[in-house]
Design goal:
Radius of gyration of chain A: 22 Å
Number of strands of chain B: 0
Helix content of chain B: over 70%
Helix content of chain A: over 70%
Structural class of chain B: mainly alpha
Number of helices of chain B: 3
Structural class of chain A: mainly alpha
Shape of chain A: extended
Distance between the termini of chain B: 51 Å
Order of helices and strands of chain A: HHHHHH
Oligomer: heterodimer
Strand content of chain A: under 5%
Distance between the termini of chain A: 74 Å
Chain lengths: 171, 99
């Protein structure tokens, strides 16, 4: 890992892990949401380091922008108070322990195998490639995703709509 | 170098699982799911970068982001409907089906 790139990686990785830890540990949902934005921005920086400025822009626009604003809207709409700490039940303790074990084994399993040497074409121009692959090879999945988003939009309206009281139907 | 990215992805994924398992606030459980999706995205892009097929990985990550957006919208709508019904978003309080 060369000097400056390595430094940037570790700074961004520390930011991402710090944000994620705070999401898991904070009591106040608004603080959780804001720390999640920190993590998303750090991940966008990591995408830039990997050579994909396009995905970084999408990450900031869609995740840090749209999705987190939606989260904050809902948190403030629901008028929640802070979570009270009601003690850790044994079941929850066990599942937390299992999550930690899962993390350790994932890190171990992913870092152990020797990766093949990186391919030469790694730094190829990205924008043109993404457009071509997206609109030629994956054209059908692309259209399917647009349909999925439409279906989700209609579904959300139906689910979140306030039902009219039954008494109003008497006419 | 790629191993570091994979390790970071694994750590973030595990933190997401931890949050989903330990928290009771369903909004924060949702945020943990987002964390897991992002960890997977990072892993996909890092491996694509390693294999010299960055654009393919980016396209796959784009699809993941689009589906995540749809999932968040539907999930938050369900949480709002739940709050209207029960005045709570605590996952432990919603146990009608548990008998």
């Amino acid at each position: 890992m060369e000097g400056l790139e390595g430094l940037a990686f570790f700074v961004l990785a520390a930011m991402a892990v710090y944000g994620a830890l705070n999401v898991v540990l904070r009591r106040n949902p608004v603080a959780c949401a804001l720390f999640l934005v920190t993590t998303f921005v750090a991940l966008a920086g990591l995408f830039v380091l990997l050579g994909s400025g396009f995905l970084a822009a999408i990450q900031v626009l869609v995740y840090a922008g749209a999705i987190m604003v939606l989260f904050l809207f809902v948190i403030m709409l629901l008028n929640l108070e802070k979570d009270l700490f009601k003690g850790i039940s044994p079941l929850r303790f066990i599942s937390g322990l299992l999550a930690v074990i899962l993390g350790a084994s994932l890190v171990w399993g992913l870092v152990q195998p020797a990766l093949p040497p990186p391919a030469e074409k790694a730094m190829a121009a990205e924008g043109v490639d993404v457009g071509q692959i997206l609109f030629e090879r994956y054209l059908f999945p692309f259209e399917a995703v647009s349909f999925l988003l439409l279906a989700a939009m209609i579904g959300v309206i139906v689910i979140a709509k306030r039902r009219a009281p039954v008494t109003e139907v008497k006419r | 170098m790629t191993s570091w990215y994979l390790a970071l992805g694994a750590i973030l994924f595990a933190l997401g699982v931890l949050g989903f398992a330990v928290r009771r606030n369903s909004l924060i459980m949702f945020m943990s799911v987002e964390l897991m999706l992002n960890a997977v995205n990072l892993t996909i892009v890092a491996l694509a970068h390693q294999n010299g097929a960055l654009a393919q990985g980016v396209v796959l990550a784009l699809f993941v982001i689009a589906v995540a957006a749809a999932e968040v919208a539907v999930g938050l709508a369900i949480i709002i409907a739940l709050y209207r019904l029960r005045e709570t978003v605590d996952a432990d309080e919603v146990r009608t089906l548990r008998g």
